[in-house]
């Protein structure tokens, strides 16, 4: 290994700089990418606001189509996932809580696990897999086919015509799907678990309703709304990165999925961590 | 943000413009300075890869040069936002050499899109304009088909016709005649002549691989170089 000189002119055989440099480049790239994604959110909302020609009819047409593809068509799959997830969690938690003598806490546990954590994450992953890929490849193909250029040539801003309605439709769809997931997981899941458990339904529902607080509603909108925003902005951004060749489309689609998963999971983890730090501070357990 | 007040094309000027594609490659234009002729049918030509299509795209402000300025009248287009440029954009009809149709829309919807988006007219009049073009060019039976269901020639023809649907003052046509058939090409030439006679269309810039249509349009030739252009005032007869 080559010798390096430290700040005092002493010879050293180890230097942190190459390591820091190696770490620094990906960090700079991630920051630059995140900045670009935020910039696109701003530009697409700004374009939609300033575009005097684009009427509500145009936006509503694309938004409703997006809700149909992302929300409505995903309902059978989300139903299966919600039933399975809800059933498993209710079965396990009711069994464990009965053994520990805390059956009355089942509502709290389910709200924490399903509504706050599993629901937003599973719904987001499902939407990334189904719709994030679809949007990225659709926009990528539009680039290849020169549709984006054609829109510009006709005086139509692609950010307000293509990107904004997809983001809006995506966020609405994700919120609806997450709500649907929670309802099916908590009620339908109980029906699935009812086969093997003797937990009374009235007791279960009472426990659930008592456990749900206003903070859960805020957390629901924050996590799901922001996940929807991230997924569709990243998908649109990646799609628009296609330059001219069809072979770029699967590459940007894959990258859209990977980046969206990283952003969504990191965001969910950060919100959860901050949330529980706040709870601990309120209880005086952490200063 | 509002669009600029625009009352027609009076000057097109490039100043020290340089352009290279994002995907790399050599400079297409370098320190390019020129005034472009107005009021004529201009055939843009040059050696292969000399940037004829690129020049048309820059003329239509679909791509921006990396340095230098492109003036339309007194407006420096390199510093204008989409909203500011919109009044000028609506006076330019542009057709691509390849692609450019919305694949999830029918041919009718493709033709009507700019009219309805910019609220130039209502649904009925837009549909009527599309129907008239379809009747004239003989594709009425395919109006409700999507681009993937019709021939490549018809797709190309639709992009050319869409460039005229807003009744632009300037038409920029990138190789409009290749692949559309002799009959359709003849009708496009007639359409250009008709629009010129009515005074709607004042400036035409086009590239073409087929010299015969250039003769029919009585074009002047503009030879594109890397640094400038050369206007050959004699009509493009060869």
In words, what does this structure look like?
The complex is a heterodimer of chains A (about 290) and B (about 240). Chain A has helices spanning about 15-50, 55-70, 75-100, 105-145, 145-155, 160-195, 200-210, 215-240, 250-280; strands spanning about 5, 10. In chain A, a hairpin with a 5-residue loop joins β1 (about 5) and β2. Chain A has about 290 residues and is mainly alpha-helical. Chain A contains 9 helices and 2 strands; from the N terminus they run ββααααααααα. Chain B is α/β, with parallel strands linked by helices and about 240 residues long. Chain B has a single domain (about 35-60, about 80-235), classed as Rossmann fold, CATH 3.40.50. Chain B is about 35% helix and about 25% strand. Chain B has 7 helices and 10 strands. Chain B has helices at about 50-60, 80-90, 105-115, 125-135, 150-165, 180-200, 210-215, and strands at about 10-20, 30-35, 40-45, 65-70, 75, 90-95, 170-175, 205, 220-225, 230-235. In chain B, the strands form 2 sheets. In chain B, strands 6-7-8-3-9-10 form a 6-stranded mixed beta sheet, sandwiched between helices. A 4-stranded antiparallel beta sheet of chain B has the order 2-1-4-5, with no helix packed on it. In chain B, β7, α6 (about 180-200) and β8 form a beta-alpha-beta unit. In chain B, α3 crosses α4 (about 125-135) and α3 runs parallel beside α5 (about 150-165). The radius of gyration of chain B is 18 Å and the shape is globular. The relative contact order of chain B is 0.18. The interface of A and B includes residues 146 and 244 of A.
